[in-house]
Design brief:
- This is ADP-ribosylglycohydrolase.
- It contains 14 helices and no strands.
- It is mostly helical.
- α8 runs parallel beside α10 (about 195-210).
- It has helices at about 1-15, 20-25, 45-60, 65-80, 90-95, 100-105, 130-145, 145-165, 175-180, 195-210, 215-225, 230-240, 250-255, 265-280.
- The protein is globular, with a radius of gyration of 17 Å.
- It has a single domain, classed as ADP-ribosylglycohydrolase fold (Orthogonal Bundle).
- The two termini are about 20 Å apart.
Length: about 280
């Protein structure tokens, strides 16, 4: 799940907010593409996966979740391995603060963008839905304390949970989300140019429902344009959990994925640890 998210994040990052003609020409799933503004994230993941790693480590450490413990983890994970991809404002804040306490003091968490959703899928590992809903909200309010930010976080975590615990087939996913969250959803592909939370989640769920092939899902996630790394990362993270998924990602995507201290092997290690937690 986390490895697939990282791979898709790295591939999608090269096309984030790219010109439609460039996407048409270069989105061939033959190589990672350098983003003109973020050359340093070529062949590696961005803030999307880094923040999901932070959530995963919190889960595995079994610490009590609080605003402070979550914020501390966000700062810790960034400081040990600074990565581009964050908004310029948030990146600067993370550079300047030295603790979760300082982060909480300077943040104004009124954003309705997709930052809370992009990191929430590991929360699906919990067995109880009330715990998932609680923790999805806890982590969302640190940076996205809005109705849209919180709801998007819950949708992604529940979707991952649905497939992790084999609660049903794809065709019943929407019904499951509607019943659990007590509201109606229209999950259709929506522009992510503004990086808004619900349009992102709408697009991700639509892609998951319409694709079996990991490769075709990744290609379409990028073809849609906009916030391609977030849509691609979330789509493949959750699609990787579906029992009818065709695992046809090209070998080069794995081979050329950066394997530094917190690279490919570390993502595999986290996936294995989460799998063991699922068995428990």
């Amino acid at each position: 799940m986390i490895l697939e998210a990282g791979l898709a994040d790295a591939y999608g990052a090269g096309f984030e907010f790219a010109d439609a003609n460039d996407i048409l020409v270069y989105n061939t799933l033959k190589e990672y593409r350098k983003h003109p503004r973020y050359a340093s994230i070529y062949g590696t993941y961005t803030d999307d996966t880094q923040m999901a790693i932070a959530i995963t480590e919190l889960i595995l450490e079994t610490k009590e979740w609080s605003k402070l413990s979550i914020a501390d983890k966000f700062v810790e994970v960034f400081k040990r391995d600074p990565r581009k991809g964050y908004s310029s404002r948030f990146y600067t804040i993370l550079e300047q603060v030295s603790s979760g306490k300082e982060l909480l003091e300077v943040l104004h968490p009124n954003s309705n963008r997709n930052g809370a959703a992009m990191r929430s899928y590991p929360i699906g590992i919990y067995k109880r839905e009330d715990v998932i809903l609680e923790k999805s909200e806890q982590q969302a309010i640190i940076t996205h304390n809005t109705k849209e930010g919180i709801l998007s976080s819950k949708i992604i975590a529940l979707a991952a949970h649905y497939f992790l615990y084999k609660k049903g087939s794809k065709k019943h996913l929407i019904e499951y989300l509607e019943v659990t969250l007590s509201q109606h959803f229209d999950f259709i592909r929506t522009s992510t140019l503004k990086m808004e939370a619900l349009p992102t989640v709408n697009t991700v769920i639509a892609l998951i429902l319409d694709h079996k092939s990991m490769s075709s899902c990744l290609i379409e996630a990028v073809d849609l344009g906009g916030d391609t790394d977030t849509v691609a990362s979330l789509s493949l993270a959750i699609l990787s959990l579906c029992k009818d998924t065709i695992y046809d990602l090209p070998n080069w995507l794995y081979k050329d994925f950066k394997n530094d201290t917190f690279g490919k092997d570390y993502l595999i290690e986290l996936d294995n640890k989460l799998s063991n937690k699922l068995i428990e």
